Structures are given as structure tokens and as C-alpha cells.
Model the fold of this input.
Amino acid sequence: MHIPSEGLSKSEVLRRVEAAREHDWPWREGKLFAYVFEAGPEVEEVGKQAYMAYLTENGLDPTTFPSLLKFENDLVDMARRHLGGDERVVGNFTSGGTESILLAVQTARDWFRARRPGVRPQMLVPITAHAAFHKAAHYFDVDTVIVDVDPETFRADPAAMKAAISDRTMLLVASACSYAHGVVDPVTEIAALAKERGLLCHVDGCMGGFMLPYFQRLGAAVPAFDFRVPGVTSMSMDFHKYGLCPKGASVVLYASEELRKFQIYACSEWTGYTMINNTIQSSKSGGPLAAAWAVLNHLGEDGYTRIAKDLLAARDALVAGIDATPGLRMLGRPDMSMVGFTSDEISVFALSDELKARGWHVQVQLAHGPSKENIHMTINPGNTRWIADFVAELPRAVEAVRAAGGGPTPPKELAALLAQQIESDPSGEGLKNVVASVVGSGGQVPGKMAEVNALLNELPRKVQEKMLVAFVGQMFTPRSEG
Ligand SMILES: Cc1ncc(COP(=O)(O)O)c(C=O)c1O
Done:
């Protein structure tokens, strides 16, 4: 598209903006079990209005906009109290879980470098920890040691973590909770190990950090995971997930300023304004910050507790429904309102397509390590009203897949052939054709994904990654419309 030679009217351009949603998933219906966290129209309105009120203010300079400084310090204070931290705990508001994790890893790296100059740092990452830790390692040139987890519970294994520690280890990672299976790692044991060896321990509470304290207060048996656990030195927690705030809202917290100081970046090596950044972003809208402040104050402890009760009931009903469906099997027992389940009888990829055709959007997760390919569902408050219907429909969807032959059989031979082709294609030219033959050209995701997922599931990880990079490259290439 060109920038139009003459600008469009406000009404016309806003009409086109709305019309552009035509093919988006209708999340307001409450049948999308991923990506969106919503607590109804009133909370949405509070977030939106606060967001728009601070849309244009710039978080680059808190001395010009002290309101943003106040919002940030208030949010960090609320977060550290919520996570059992004392007044020594400090932190910053970030744009999301990934930024919080990137910062925690960069801070650990620079803490380590100050102690052990010239030694290449390494962090221990359970196989179930979020991909953002691998991204951080990639960006900040840190080595990762991937550590096995318990194959039944999918919780990190402290003995395996202990065995993996080397003299280059800087950081031990634990999740509260993990994305794929919704389980909390044994943080007490992992943090104790870090403390004993003088290492750092980051607890990723991006998914669970906000809601799990309410689950605990409601009597759910959630393992200890926050700053009350000795040895926890940093945490990440997202407001834009179970804090139910508009996106662009997370927090990274450190046990003390001694550690956080490695995160703050100042630069005087240029001719411009004084540059001090707490986070990766520099100029940033005040919108997400004001919105998070507003939503937390609007919902309050009573509002979140009410929501937590509904989520727990929905989670228990969903797990019971999966347990009761012949042919399905839970992967682990979630502490959070998130589930992963698989099947030894039918293709979960075909089941995902079948559910989609019936109006339910669930997520597929490919096989990795002890985690067989599975269907993941994150329950958000907007989904809870549908759980009974979903549980009633699930066995019917399974039977429909079974009746249609059970879905694609794993295409092992084709996968081996493609892997060989891709690995012997250093220029990457052939890869384009392979991607086009698998998912079609034009960068469009096909409606039915079972065959594509079944193939991806059989490819070696490095080949999978290459294909996904090529696919996304194609998807994000503008197609000229003349
Ligand atoms: C456990 C966990 N950590 C980190 C992240 C990354 O968060 P974001 O998508 O906000 O960058 C996620 C996202 O789902 C997550 O589940």
C-alpha cells in the first residue's frame, strides 16, 4: 500500500480500521482459550480510558511526567507486597513477560561479569521454562544448560539442577507456573540450591505470579514460589495476563538494589539528551502503565479474589471433563488455571481442528522431551461461563475425529526427507519451496492445520526452527497491491 496522496476523513479511516477485524477471532464470545485475558466490559473500559488518557505521555523522561513515575513506583510496590517481598525489593514496569525475562538475564549476566571477568556465563533452564530464556541467551550471549524435568509431573527436578551446576553457572531458573502444563516448580529446593552456591535464582511468575497468591488464599495447594522463599533473587510477573490489564504491562523485581543496579543503563557517549533507561524500551507510551494502575485499583483484592474463585472452579471442571473423556489424558496436574492434555488414540492436531470447526479455539503444543504433542488451554475469566458447554462438547469432538479415522498418522518418511533437504540447503533457497509446499505460498496460514502440525511435530527441532523462520519471513513480507 502507498501512503494515500490525500488523507482520508476521520470517519472513513476509523471505519476501515474496524472493518479490518473481519477475519479476526471473535474473542468477546469467550471461546478463545489463549492470547486474551479479559474480565468483562467494565474492566475493559477502565483500562481503555486510563490508557487513552496517557497515550501520548512519554515514559522516557519521568521528570517531565512525574505521574508516570508515581504509577510505576505504586505498581512495583503493589507487586512486591503481592509476592511477599519486603521494602528492599525493587523493580521496574516493562512491556511484557519477555522484556522482564530479557532484563533479568541481562542483569544476571552483568552481575556475574562483575564478579568473574572473562568467564562465559551459563544459566540452568528447565526444559519447561518459557522460550524467552532462550531468546535472552541468544540476545545476550549467555550459554544455557537445558535441564530435564520430572516426566510425570513436569515440575523441574532439583537433583538434576544440582547436577548441572558448573563453575560458570550464574542463574537458576524456576517457573511459577510453566506455560505448557501450568505447574509450579519446586522453588524452595531450587532457590536453596542457588543460595547455598552463591548463585542467582529467577522465578518466572509471568503466568502465575498474579493469580496464584489468590489461589493460595482460597486454600488451593500451591507450592511456595515467591520472595518469601529464601534464595529467590528476582521475579517476573505480568499484569497483562492474569492481572487482566491491557497489553504492554509486566514487572521485573529484584531482591535488592545491589542486583537491580546492573539493569539500569546510562549513556553519556553522544551529543543528545541525558540518556538513562531502566528497561529495554526508551520512548514509550504512558498508556499501559496508567491502564495497569487503574485496573489494579479498580478490581482490588476483592475483585481478584472473586475472579480467582471462578477460575479455580472452571479449572477443576475442565480437568474433570478431560479425565472423564475416553481417549484423552492430562499431562501433569496444573496448579494454575491452564491445562495440557494429549491422546494416545487420536491425533490431537485433528482434535484441535475439529474443536475449531465447532467454534472453540485451543492451542496445539508440539512434542518436546517428555511432553507429548498436546492441546493447551489457558482459561481466562471470559471463558469460565463456557466450561460446562466445552466439557459436554469435548467427547463429541473426540468421537468425530475417531469416526473420521483418528487424524493424520505421523508422516515420518516425509519428515525425514524434508529434514535432509533442508539440512543440505545452505543457501536456504530450497527452504522457501518446502515452506510453500507445506503451508502454501502467500504467507497465509491454512484453516486446517492438522497435517502441517503433524509434519512439524516429526521434524528435528533445528529444522522446525529454520522452517518457522522462513515461514514468518514470508508472512511478514508486504504484497504490493499495485
Ligand atoms: C511462563 C511465561 N513466561 C513468560 C512469558 C512471556 O510473556 P510475553 O508473551 O508477555 O512476553 C509467557 C507467555 O506466555 C509465559 O507463559
Remarks:
- The longest helix spans residues 287-324.
- Residues 412-475 form one domain.
